[in-house]
Amino acid sequence: MPSTNDFLNGAGLSQRCDLPENLRRRGCGPEFTEQSETKVEVNATISSTQVSPQDISINLRPGAEASFIVSVKQLEHYPVDLYYLVDVSASMQENLDHLKTVGVALSLRMTEHSSDLWLGFGSFVDKPVSPYINVHPSKISNPCSDYEIRCRPAHGFHHVLSMTGNMSEFTRVIKRQRISGNMDTPEGGLDAMLQAAVCQRAVGWRPEAKRLLLLMTDQPSHLALDSRLAGIVRPHDGLCHLENNVYTGSTRMDHPSVGQLSDKLLENHIYSIFAVEKQQYQWYEELVCLLPGSYLGKLGLFQAPNLIELVVDAYKRLLSEVAVSVSVEDKAVSRYWVSVSPICPDGSTAKDRSCSGVQPDQTVYFNITIGQHSCPNDGEDEDITVMVHPVGYNESTVIRIHSKCRCSCGLMGRCQDDNQSPCTGTQDGSRQRQRQEQGLMKDSNADRNWSCRADGSDMECSGRGVCDCGRCVCEQSRLGTVYGKYCEMDDFSCPYEGGLLCGRRGVCVSGECVCDDGWTGESCGCPVSTATCQSLNGLICSGRGRCVCGKCVCDDPKHSGDFCERCPACQSSCQSHWKCVDCHLSHGLTREEVGHCNNTCTPLVGYTDDVAGQAGEMWIQCMYISKDSCRYRFQTSSQSGRTQLHISTRPECVSSGRLVGTFLSVCALTVLCGLVVVAVSRLLLQKRSLSPGGAAEDGGYHCTGKDLSYIPTTNEKTVTYRRDRPPDRPLEMHIQVPKMPLGDPWQC
């Protein structure tokens, strides 16, 4: 806590208390600060057999942390409470029958692990509302009426048998159970699990026993928000709602969330075991990962031996794994962080919060560190409680944290003597009393108010504070700190980069980002280094651009790419170099005359005998036809950042006489080919005219066998003519058309 009066420079008085590095950055030296010490006190008066210590008090301040050790010891034998929570929908009829022989056999099997086994039983189906069940009156009382079977009504949870050591009573209750029915596939298993966990008095969980909750089902379970289909939107309150052993909140509240169920299982020291058919194994495998202290068993059939082995294996597995869960009060969870490092009996340090393979009478030590990020928004001290729950144990550690957020200041939040004036000091106080004696108090207040206004401003404290005794006291903001003599500065009005103030690469001072080393720009989004603009050839932007804010900006818009390495228009512009090549040709392609063409084209021009020998991805092959009809090959490259040109000194020339001869030869060949085609055509026609039958001579047409079927066979035609004023009877004309002999040709 700094004690200098001019340190704040108009900032809120609560800003005197901050992290040491923040105070130093704002100009407060170590000699002007005070720090409250971190203190850890263990209450050794509370004895325990499994978890110790059970009560710890810690004084913390922002930026500080405290560490302590919690030990968890595994005992030799525990009493065991096992509660069977069974899905009694119609598909579970056969599985329910297998439970009738489980009680006595399981009791005998568990004697080697526990000397005191108690069993309980409860059933569930689903919420008894539409669309989960059929709400027809005949279906509500008997969901199986269509199958002429008497079923019990659907229910969210029914507690049937409290914990008992009487195995005969357990068997008798199981035999009386009947199935029920519902409409949809998922069941209300999680809803029933929460009730079985929190209704401790009704279920009869013993405080000293290891508590096992076994869920048996062949279907997945509904999750939170599923009840909206039935118009149920009220979240589950996590409390017990049993009346006459029936869950009455099923139709009023939604299914619990997985997180809520996890908290209630931990809070009530309950291990959960899931006995499901293999078809649903994957769904529950993902659920078990979210529930500490849970075990999943895959059963082909719900037969008694399988169930007994499942319970025994789960009990041994769960007890041999020691884990802790740390919970912080909801109101302060964002201001604290927790780290847990277990030390297992073999001396190893596990990566997660648990140790496996722990044997009876062995102890696991958990090194727990709790740190504080920040204070509450009001800047006041606070007291919170942190709980350390060893999973499945009925003992826990309570950590009481007192957060020290205030400094040793006066009632008004100022570091000053009690005999000072309410303003800024004794000298100002004497002046005030003198002015008050002279009747100038009103003018004094006006003078002090004007001292809270910046030059040229008619607003006190920039509209972000109040004027108190001639000095601005800046308002607090959830966004950050407002400070300055006139509250004109803050640390949150700077540009954002990627949703972060100053890109989290700098600090906001007076509305501008002060960037960390290596960064620049308005929002600290630009690296100072040009390494991100360096191309493979070592040049910045391939020598064709500038590095701006870590990215290449090409000088020529024809270039593109991350490093200006691409130029689609350049690679097809051989014509742009023709003028350069022509200049070099006019000077004889001699190295002595190369300099004459520097003004016409690039100075990096070379001559070579064969440009094909340098072909590759970096070189573009081109051709230029000179005035004397000679072809000159050349190649160009711009990969190194500067244009290069290689011109072949071996032209490909053809004489004019040779060109004329070639032209005449092509013409003669074309005429000859035409004559051959005409001659062949005439020969084919003549051969056809001399074929047998002589049809070509008389211009006739011979009918083939197929054509005969189309020759008409009718030789009579009757035509009737009528006039507007017919005579006494119609006049008819008969025309006889003789048949044509088949051998006669058709004549035109």
From TrEMBL:
GO terms for molecular function: integrin binding. It comes from the Eukaryota. Belongs to the integrin beta chain family. Disulfide bonds join 144-151, 199-240, 344-355, 375-622, 405-409, 467-472, 469-502, 474-487, 508-513, 515-524, 526-533, 547-552, 549-597, 554-564, 567-570, 574-583, 580-653, 601-630. The keyword Metal-binding does not apply. This is Integrin beta. Residues 574-655 form the Integrin beta subunit tail domain. It is found in: Cell membrane. GO terms for cellular component: cell surface; focal adhesion; integrin complex. It comes from Amphiprion ocellaris (Clown anemonefish). Residues 3-407 form the Integrin beta subunit VWA domain. Residues 420-442 are annotated as: Disordered. InterPro entries: EGF_integrin_2, Integrin_bsu, Integrin_bsu_tail, Integrin_bsu_tail_dom_sf, Integrin_bsu_VWA, Integrin_dom_sf, Integrin_I-EGF_CS, vWFA_dom_sf. Its main location: membrane. It is a single-pass type I membrane protein. GO terms for biological process: cell adhesion mediated by integrin; cell migration; cell-cell adhesion; integrin-mediated signaling pathway. SMART domains: INB, Integrin_B_tail. The chain crosses the membrane at residues 659-680. Pfam families: EGF_integrin, EGF_Teneurin, Integrin_beta. Keywords: Cell adhesion, Cell membrane, Disulfide bond, EGF-like domain, Glycoprotein, Integrin, Magnesium, Membrane, Repeat, Signal, Transmembrane, Transmembrane helix. Residues 420-429 have a biased composition (Polar residues).
